[in-house]
Amino acid sequence: MIAVVIPIAMTLFAVAVLLNFYRLAIGPDIVDRILALDTLMINSIALIVLADLRMGLGVLFELALLIALMGFVSTVAMSKYLLRGDVIE
Amino acid sequence: MTHLDMPATLQLVVAAFLLIGALVALIGSWGLAKLPDFYTRLHGPTKASTLGVGCTLIGSLLFFSHQQDGVSVQEALVTIFLFATAPVSAHMLGKAALRRRLKGVPGTRNMPDR
Amino acid sequence: MTPPLRSRQFWLPHPLFSLFLTLLWLLMVNDLSVAHALLGLALGVAIPLVTHAFWPEEAKIRRPLPLLRYLGVLLVDILRSNLVVALRILRPARQLRPGFFTYPLALEDDFAITLLASTISLTPGTVSLHYDNEANTLLIHALHLEDEAEAIATIRTRYEQPLEEIFR
């Protein structure tokens, strides 16, 4: 049953990623684009985990953790830049 | 895939987690794509996407905990991390949007005029 | 300002945080052996020691038990909020009545306010956007705002009062 569900879930996440790309392309403001990138990062974590499940490896969590970390830090850094014109106060 | 020796109930639970997680995350991204202004768009990703990915991770946790005898907790770590950081990035983005004086959709109540 | 070299305050400024770091390390390596426990303990002592200068004043968790209950309530509300937000997203956007409101905080502690702001962002239809340091208020955006006073009252009784109880 899991073997059937994983491709379906991956398809749903792929559609979600396409929707994020749509928002990334049309904007309209730069803040919308940052939000789209953030969501893209979160969705890609799920795609990585699903790929891991499909291959039955169980080794890709470091990757998921790293992407979560990078996504968070880059989102905060970009917002900070918009807030102050400077990343570090 | 070597999940054939898994009990059927556990398979069902894992499958449900994966499917519901994907659906919820899709709704979150759908909200990001369709809602009318930035402030409303902020709601979709912070709640739905986080919970959707969290569900997927918990499904994976259950699967690998059975697979590799011994609880695999790293997915729980990623989930907790996502839930702890999503409000913070939403807050920062919202502040940036207020600072840039983005307009709300017509009909927004008490639009701050800073 | 620096505590004396031989006191506990110098070597273990944040005992709970040290414990948390050790646990985090064990979770991260996913391996419960003596070697990793010792390495985690070493990290748990070293990191607060090195970063001590950057810390704001420490939050005091007075009662751990209500904190657990609070986390339980939060988990249920996250699930509920996703249902609410999903329904709002799937309905036509014309029916939305988004709005802002200001929430006057009763909490004083920085860490408690952070927790409350995060909670508001994770629960039904509200995102906290701005914390006003002088007036001690939070600016909140609601996806569907019907009654401002009711929204404020819900946050007050459901989240802020338990937090006050924990950090008092």
Automatic annotation (TrEMBL), chain A:
Keywords: Antiport, Cell membrane, Ion transport, Membrane, Transmembrane, Transmembrane helix, Transport
Gene source species: Halomonas urmiana
Name of the protein in its database record: K+/H+ antiporter subunit F
Record's bilayer topology term: Multi-pass membrane protein
Principal location class: membrane
Top-level taxon in the UniProt lineage: Bacteria
One Pfam family hit: MrpF_PhaF
Family as reported in the entry's similarity comment: Belongs to the CPA3 antiporters (TC 2.A.63) subunit F family.
Gene Ontology CC terms, in alphabetical order: plasma membrane
Subcellular location: Cell membrane
Parts of the chain that traverse the membrane: 6-22, 34-51, 63-83
Recorded coiled-coil stretches: none
Record has Cell membrane as a keyword: yes
Keyword Ion transport: yes
Record-level Gene Ontology MF annotations: sodium:proton antiporter activity
Automatic annotation (TrEMBL), chain C:
Membrane-topology descriptor: Multi-pass membrane protein
Keywords: Cell membrane, Membrane, Transmembrane, Transmembrane helix
InterPro entries reported for this sequence: Cation_antiport_E
GO-annotated cellular components: plasma membrane
MF terms (GO), sorted A to Z: monoatomic cation transmembrane transporter activity
Localization, UniProt: Cell membrane
Pfam family, one: MNHE
Superkingdom assignment: Bacteria
Residues passing through the membrane, by range: 12-30, 37-55
UniProt keyword annotation of Transmembrane present: yes
Family: Belongs to the CPA3 antiporters (TC 2.A.63) subunit E family.
PANTHER family registered for this protein in UniProt: NA(+)/H(+) ANTIPORTER SUBUNIT E1 (PTHR34584), NA(+)_H(+) ANTIPORTER SUBUNIT E1 (PTHR34584:SF1)
Protein name: Na+/H+ antiporter subunit E
Organism field: Halomonas urmiana
Lineage summary: Bacteria, Pseudomonadati, Pseudomonadota, Gammaproteobacteria, Oceanospirillales
